[in-house]
Amino acid sequence: MPEPALPYDGPGAFAAPGPGPAVGPGVGAGAGPSGSTPEQLLDLDRDHVWHPYGPMPGRQRPLLIESASGVRLRPAVPAEGHEELVDGMSSWWAAVHGYNHPVLNEAVRTQLDRMSHVMFGGLTHEPAVRLAARLVEITPEPLRHVFLADSGSVAVEVAAKMCLQYWRSLGRPEKRRLMTWRGGYHGDTWQPMSVCDPDGGMHHLWSGVLPRQVFADAPPGGFDDAPDPAYCAHLRELVARHADELAAVVVEPVVQGAGGMRFHSPGYLKVLREACDEHGVLLVLDEIATGFGRTGELFAAGHAGISPDVMCLGKALTGGYLTMAATLCTTGVAEGISRGEVPVLAHGPTFMGNPLAAAVACASVDLLLEQDWRQEVKRIESGLREGLAPAAGLPGVADVRVLGAIGVVQLDHEVDMAAATRAAVRAGVWLRPFRDLVYTMPPYVTGDEDLARICAAVVAAAREG
């Protein structure tokens, strides 16, 4: 059965809400800067704040965080006896430099003194121009043009719109479907949901409403495995059969993220590139989770030595400071759209190119590239392989896999999220398990001692979950 696409809080996420225990004991001591106690803030949270992939009101109390620095989160009150927790998630894979970084803080402060925002329609500014030029410089040729979006999901939405409008501008409006493979996840807005796994997570709720796309089987697992000839033939045949109606193929390269943390051979990307070229279909790579070094290459497309027609970036783009994403395309795509009946890309977010976000994104990219990031990711990969190895012998563990700064323990059952999270917090680490997975994507600045602690927490969570 295809894997669910969304990291929701297990099968009970939609049950009638109950009060639920706090992750840490003793909530209620002390008062926050607003004068409210942690207990009062959590009560307000439960009454009014709708958290991602959860019911309203929430079934479980979130952990109230008052500050973060380096790779540590500081709860408002001690959690399971810990005044600080090592962050094993990079705040959903974005905070690659950790928290409260002086270089990134200064970039935001300096820009804030100049201007926090101006509209991008008819105006431009240095941070956005520099960021676009930097992204063109570091991404694969021939990506040359950058559309700055609000979030990763919107970046994929823009990519789909680019591809659909490209073919419409060329007089081929019938090329309006997208192809992907099962097990993927591309975000929660409309077109991205349509290319997420159709049977998993919560997106099956929209069956019959979302556009009907073309789905290949999920790619065989195993980054180091040779490409399966039968699966390669399956991809080629599907592209050929639907070429007349396909605008684009949209996939996550090498790592399927929130759809199941599955790794696949880069060889399948080469097959898709060749098939798309042969049959006149655009190729879109969603590098929102994999970009900026997470898999050991700056962009996961580098493992295959290919370049897409459109690439989506996000998450680590700003180092986790502010929401911003980017959709890059080739000159061929841009010129095709600009020759059409409507010679503009019909998309324009209010906060497009936000100067604060662009400034910190420039600083984050420079900070990454000025370091030996590749060696740091290799160091983390080695630590994850060593530290997660004991999990392979646990009852209920189906697989342990590591690629770059990604470590995954897959169970043979749905994880007990509350129990697994509590076990990780007892070990002094923040993790966010989902479905049948306990995984970590730590900040690149995580030291060896903290990395070992994260691994021990993953193993503990897998044992309890």
UniProtKB/TrEMBL annotation:
Modified positions (N6-(pyridoxal phosphate)lysine) in chain numbering: 315
Annotated positions for site Participates in the substrate recognition with KAPA and in a stacking interaction with the adenine ring of SAM: 53
Family matches, as SUPFAM superfamilies: PLP-dependent transferases (SSF53383)
Pfam families noted in UniProt: Aminotran_3
Keyword field contains S-adenosyl-L-methionine: yes
Needed co-factor(s): pyridoxal 5'-phosphate
Compartmental location: Cytoplasm
Annotated stretches, region: Disordered: 1-37
Biochemical pathway: Cofactor biosynthesis; biotin biosynthesis; 7,8-diaminononanoate from 8-amino-7-oxononanoate (SAM route): step 1/1
Region forming the signal peptide: none
CDD domains: OAT_like
Keywords assigned by UniProt, alphabetized: Aminotransferase, Biotin biosynthesis, Cytoplasm, Pyridoxal phosphate, S-adenosyl-L-methionine, Transferase
Binding positions (pyridoxal 5'-phosphate): 152-153, 286, 349-350
Catalytic activity: (8S)-8-amino-7-oxononanoate + S-adenosyl-L-methionine = S-adenosyl-4-methylsulfanyl-2-oxobutanoate + (7R,8S)-7,8-diammoniononanoate
Protein EC: 2.6.1.62
UniProt feature, compositional bias: Gly residues: 21-33
Quaternary state and interactors: Homodimer.
PANTHER family: ADENOSYLMETHIONINE-8-AMINO-7-OXONONANOATE AMINOTRANSFERASE (PTHR42684)
Family designation: Belongs to the class-III pyridoxal-phosphate-dependent aminotransferase family. BioA subfamily.
Function: Catalyzes the transfer of the alpha-amino group from S-adenosyl-L-methionine (SAM) to 7-keto-8-aminopelargonic acid (KAPA) to form 7,8-diaminopelargonic acid (DAPA). It is the only aminotransferase known to utilize SAM as an amino donor.
Listed name of the protein: Adenosylmethionine-8-amino-7-oxononanoate aminotransferase
